[in-house]
UniProtKB/TrEMBL annotation:
SUPFAM superfamilies: Bet v1-like. The lineage of its organism: Eukaryota, Metazoa, Ecdysozoa, Nematoda, Chromadorea. Keywords: Lipid transport, Lipid-binding, Transport. Residues 59-184 form the START domain. This is START domain-containing protein. May be involved in the intracellular transport of sterols or other lipids. May bind cholesterol or other sterols. GO terms for molecular function: lipid binding. Pfam families: START. It comes from Steinernema carpocapsae (Entomopathogenic nematode).
């Protein structure tokens, strides 16, 4: 049974005009949970999903670090094994990297969508000597439509409300757990 000292947590909250980032850390184990929250005005849940889905043609448009994505295995219609390759940076000082991720996509009864992912080892994807194998920490995207009142409040706050516009908005939450293995 862990003692009370092992359960000490520290947290921070950073707020910018576009998003909120929370960080919760255990002081003893150095495990950290990060949470990013943002509202995307004028965008439906399906629009956001099309932009972030790994197999979408829209992903390379906004993700400048992405070199390639390939589906390694399709375990079911909503469960994929995907290989992401990230470009090298800083004139090659930071090497090209890849991750092999198990991704599960789901739609909830309220219309919200979730994507859960983590790194795995897959026999069809051995390590490539010139590429660093990176690790995707257990992560989850939660994508949910916000109410019209929430959208009006966000737009009023930004002083760009146009009453003639049809208001659609989507809230994105992204969480991941960074763990550190304890050496005993």
């Amino acid at each position: 049974m862990p003692n009370a000292a092992a359960l000490r947590l520290s947290s921070t909250k950073n707020v910018s005009k576009d998003c909120v980032i929370y960080r919760l850390q255990c002081d003893i184990t150095d495990n950290t949970i990060f949470r990013f929250k943002a509202t995307v005005p004028k965008c439906s849940v399906d629009d956001v999903c099309r932009r972030i889905h790994p197999c979408s043609t829209l992903r390379p448009v906004w993700d400048s670090q992405l070199q390639s994505i390939e589906v390694i295995d399709e375990l079911s219609a909503n469960v994929l094994v995907i290989r992401h390759v990230i470009k090298s940076r800083l004139l090659g000082i930071i090497s090209e990297r890849d991750t092999i991720d198990l991704c599960k996509f789901s739609t909830e009864t309220d219309g919200s969508k979730r994507a859960v992912m983590c790194s795995i080892v897959h026999p069809a994807c051995p390590r490539v000597p010139s590429i660093v194998r990176a690790h995707t920490h257990p992560s989850m995207f939660g994508i949910k439509a916000t109410s019209r009142d929430d959208v009006l409040r966000v737009l009023r706050k930004r002083n760009n409300l146009n009453k003639a516009e049809t208001l659609h908005s989507t809230r994105i939450s992204f969480c991941y757990l960074r763990t550190k293995i304890l050496k005993i």
